[in-house]
Amino acid sequence: MSKYNIQEFKSNFDTAFIEFFNKKGYKQSYFVDNIRFLFGFGCVIPAAIAFGLEHFHDFSKLKEHLLCLLLVYFTFSGLLTWWISFVKRNRIYMGTSPDQKLSIDAETTLPLKHNPHLDLTLRIKRGKQPTTIAHKLSIPVADIFDQEGQISQDAFSKHISSLCRSCIDKE
Amino acid sequence: MNYLEGKIDFHGQIRCSKYMNYGILTSGVAAYIAGWLAHDSFLSIKVFLILSIIAGIICIPAWPMYNRKPLQFQKTKN
């Protein structure tokens, strides 16, 4: 019985995509993920401090301190939600080419449909130019995955290499 | 034993999701109406539970009707 797990297909594709560009010598940037972790810790630390303070002291004495910690928590929580929703979105890869001339930014989505298509958006920025050029590719899931839910390396390489030739190598 | 593994194709997943949503909605509405007419909130809960179980029986197992449109994937390389 074939696997029809959308999340697994997307996850396998994202992993293969990241490995493909890292093998080509691109340097991956973890800036977006690092900021996300920073905001996450900004939420956890005030919560832990509030828990610790309340455990050892009386609540009535701590009201002002807990209010400050609550405000800090909600600030970081709001920033985390904004970062995940509007900055990270469906981004799977940010990297710079080996010669530092090109930076790419890839997003993938795989909505559940009768015949799902994996939508890849590749944004390319040349050097220090402010403009980015977006290239979109839509691949039917049946074209790059096998019955076990594993990615078919030949089909994957064919699609991504043709995308690279038409978008990146021309830049 | 696919009933336990629960593998259904994409077309089946969309259908199953629709049946579940409509089933739960219908259960809620029917339970509310039944309870309102009989002036019995416990009847409302019983009706909701029974209809939800029926919806669960329709949606949870991987019935063959959810595997009618398989996709032609790439061949597996051993």
From TrEMBL, chain A:
Membrane-crossing residue ranges in chain numbering: 35-53, 65-84
GO cellular component assignments: signal peptidase complex
Compartments where located: Endoplasmic reticulum membrane
Signal peptide annotation: none
Keyword field: Endoplasmic reticulum, Membrane, Transmembrane, Transmembrane helix
GO terms for biological process, alphabetical: protein targeting to ER; signal peptide processing
Family in the record: Belongs to the SPCS2 family.
Role noted for this protein: Component of the signal peptidase complex (SPC) which catalyzes the cleavage of N-terminal signal sequences from nascent proteins as they are translocated into the lumen of the endoplasmic reticulum. Enhances the enzymatic activity of SPC and facilitates the interactions between different components of the translocation site.
Name of this protein: Signal peptidase complex subunit 2
Gene: spc2
Automatic annotation (TrEMBL), chain B:
Transmembrane segments: 20-39, 45-66
This protein's record includes keyword Endoplasmic reticulum: yes
Any one Pfam family match given in the protein's UniProt record, by short name: SPC12
Keywords: Endoplasmic reticulum, Membrane, Transmembrane, Transmembrane helix
Subcellular location per the Swiss-Prot or TrEMBL entry: Endoplasmic reticulum membrane
Membrane topology designation: Multi-pass membrane protein
Domain of life per record: Eukaryota
Location (main, coarse): endoplasmic reticulum
Single Gene Ontology BP annotation: protein targeting to ER
GO cellular component, one term: signal peptidase complex
Chain coiled-coil ranges: none
Family listed: Belongs to the SPCS1 family.
Function of the protein: Component of the signal peptidase complex (SPC) which catalyzes the cleavage of N-terminal signal sequences from nascent proteins as they are translocated into the lumen of the endoplasmic reticulum. Dispensable for SPC enzymatic activity.
Designated name of the protein: Signal peptidase complex subunit 1
